[in-house]
């Protein structure tokens, strides 16, 4: 990661500094954190390190629409401002960061691969070989592999092996969850970051990051879905037996609700956003017809404000929210992981804060729904503790769970940092050594 001091001196091995960047459609946030090895905590298993935030900067996002960079100059400017603010607060300079990726028509696929062991014990190299064999199948033209994760191993046909290292057998098999995205949006996001004189350490799919931050252990283990509702996109991830098994995204989010309101009430976008936050709800209330909301119409300065019943506003919001939730329900049932999720759904992301959202989701999805906030991070300012910062927190958790993922299969991809002796490999090595 962004190291303090040299690469191999004792100090940097003990506590690394990690910088993450969440480039969204409504805000760009940059967080600088120190990772310190921790004693085994009971609440968040699998976290090997304590995360202490030392710098944070966030900016209104420009030049990004539904997670895609549509204006390089404006996107670069927003990224620069957010990173500058975080650097100033942390008192250090950042050179490379972990970034999230939402756009690019994310697609989850499952592959399996087997290799011959010839009766000897499974070691690190065998794991690398079988993972490489699984990931190779996913390298298609114009698409990039974001994640290639082992979901489960099998030894001589016996499935459900969690960690085969040290076991004996003839054939080692792996079921892999591979998440791919289109190359172009990925490259353009990287370009906007490079133009700010920063390099991309690793790109993480937004649904993966959001799930890591918002789900608790029992949910990860028993199976749950995390729905991350952003400004321009909504992503969904499914975790089961502690593993990320499915991810998807749809280009609809909170900004679309604002746009619908602005059109439906013929008012400005700023006024519509204010109305949504102050008076908006995804559920009709009993007093909606009596409550009046004041609206400033677009046009001449001197025009008198209009008063409309709140129910008109609720109807517009509700239509868009229900459509979004129905799309998600459809994606979830098509994914084949509907049963894995059971009744457990966690909503997170800025747009999940709309009044009545959990109830609306409960009704449309027919499952239990709670709003998830990022867990287990010290030093976040009050304003950044809400669901809107889940993805940024998930990006900080990621390096702690990435050890199985760093393997040379990605040498073919541009993100050669993982396991070809690149930075992230050093990071997971450092995480293993210091713990």
TrEMBL record:
<dbReference type="InterPro" id="IPR003494">
    <property type="entry name" value="SHS2_FtsA"/>
</dbReference>
<dbReference type="Pfam" id="PF02491">
    <property type="entry name" value="SHS2_FTSA"/>
</dbReference>
<dbReference type="InterPro" id="IPR050696">
    <property type="entry name" value="FtsA/MreB"/>
</dbReference>
<keyword id="KW-1003">Cell membrane</keyword>
<keyword id="KW-0131">Cell cycle</keyword>
<comment type="function">
    <text>Cell division protein that is involved in the assembly of the Z ring. May serve as a membrane anchor for the Z ring.</text>
</comment>
<comment type="subunit">
    <text>Self-interacts. Interacts with FtsZ.</text>
</comment>
<feature type="domain" description="SHS2">
    <location>
        <begin position="18"/>
        <end position="214"/>
    </location>
</feature>
<dbReference type="InterPro" id="IPR020823">
    <property type="entry name" value="Cell_div_FtsA"/>
</dbReference>
<dbReference type="GO" id="GO:0051301">
    <property type="term" value="P:cell division"/>
</dbReference>
<comment type="similarity">
    <text>Belongs to the FtsA/MreB family.</text>
</comment>
<protein>
    <recommendedName>
        <fullName>Cell division protein FtsA</fullName>
    </recommendedName>
</protein>
<dbReference type="InterPro" id="IPR043129">
    <property type="entry name" value="ATPase_NBD"/>
</dbReference>
<keyword id="KW-0132">Cell division</keyword>
<dbReference type="Pfam" id="PF14450">
    <property type="entry name" value="FtsA"/>
</dbReference>
<keyword id="KW-0472">Membrane</keyword>
